Amino acid sequence: MSIKAIIIDDERLARNELRKLLAEHPDIQIIDEASNAEEGVEKIEQHKPDLIFLDIQMPGKSGFELLEELEKAPHVIFTTAYDEFALKAFEVNALDYVLKPIEPKRLADAVHKFHDEVEKTSSSPSGQRGTLTESDQVFVKDGERCWFVKLNEIRLFESVGNYAKVFFGNNKPLILKSLNALEERLDEKVFFRANRKHIINLRWIEKVEPYFNGGLLLELKGGEKIEVSRRQTVKFKEMMSL
Q: If you average pLDDT over every residue of the chain, what do you get?
């Protein structure tokens, strides 16, 4: 299986060195490279790689800011000379980070992690083009904290003005996206617009109860109680009926 990869690093020597080391991994095909975040976003959207090797500190925008601009985050292995970023890279749940100067053994371990991850997710069904599937991951940044989150871990999106609050684990960061924009991209078999303010992940429903005016009250596994509007209740019952 050929893996399409892009190297994004502002130093040409670092890109050349990484290319040389990756020649030992013939299944990884370097299809392009970029020297800054803007160029990186363009190349990622053009080629849709399986994996990116991403420097964090670059002139202009950082590697984290690059990820913020992507609709869907590819798998990422950070390559950085800055150890203080290591912890942050793990906080975002990246596949791995490799400190420069890169050691061949360390790079091999990171590539191995990538293969493991691909094996885990390859059984997940992929949706139609443009739709984000359950196994896709998105990059969420709120202030200094950032995460890669698989969509199947997100139980709820809640509208807060022009933002959406994203509920996963104990986290509830805000992203600059409207619910309407999210609804267009999410798989409707998994994510359901319960009312004007909420999109829920159907897999996270714990309990369904009748509610006022012919509506329903859903309790999610995270403890949140969400009202389904009367109009959406009709749709919900159709979807859930066997």
A: 90
CATH of region 137-240: 2.40.50.1020
The strand pair at 51-54 and 75-80 is best described as parallel
CA–CA distances in Å: residue 134 to residues 6, 100, 140: 24, 34, 16
For residue 86, is pLDDT > 90? no
The two beta strands, 225-228 and 216-220, are antiparallel
Is residue 165 pLDDT above 70, yes or no? yes
Torsion of CA 207, 212, 214, 219, to 10 degrees: -10
Q: In CATH terms, is domain 3-121 a member of 3.40.50.2300?
A: yes
pLDDT category of residue 128 using cuts at 50, 70 and 90: very low
Q: Where are the domains of the chain?
A: 3-121, 137-240
